[in-house]
Amino acid sequence: MTGSAKATVFIDNERVIVTEYRFQPGDNTGWHRHGHDYVIVPLMDGKLKLLTKDGESFAEMKKGAPYFREEGVEHDVISANESEYAFIEIELK
User: Which SUPFAM superfamilies match (predicted)?
Assistant: First the structure.
């Protein structure tokens, strides 16, 4: 990914990739396609703007409330917060 969010990989092995994404206001992940199923765990409450081929939407994130997505999701994730925001992504290989 080529966005401005800071990605820190904590685990990358044959079974899983665990990455923390930290965003300053307006930072993004860059356009990407998920090659594996994944789980997102928000580290704080916040709001994200999601850009997809179908347009844009917003997601309200709740600290500690994980969600699951299947392989194949294509999007750019942009912080819609006025302060730092972060989540953990757990990608299942």
Answer: RmlC-like cupins (SSF51182)
Domain with 13, as residue range(s), is: 6-92
Q: How far apart are CA 22 and CA 27, in angstroms?
A: 9
39 within domain boundaries: yes
Q: 28-78 pLDDT, tens per residue?
A: 999 999 999 999 999 999 999 999 999 999 999 999 999 999 999 999 999
Percent helix, strand and coil across the chain, each to the nearest 5: 0, 60, 40
Check which CATH number belongs to the domain holding 83 and give it: 2.60.120.10
Residues 15 and 91: beta-carbon distance below 8 Å: no
Residue 46 to residues 3, 10, 38, 89, Cα–Cα distance (Å): 19, 22, 19, 16
Max Cα–Cα distance, the chain, nearest Å: 37
Work out how many domains the chain is built from and give that number.
1
Residue 17 falls within a domain, yes or no? yes
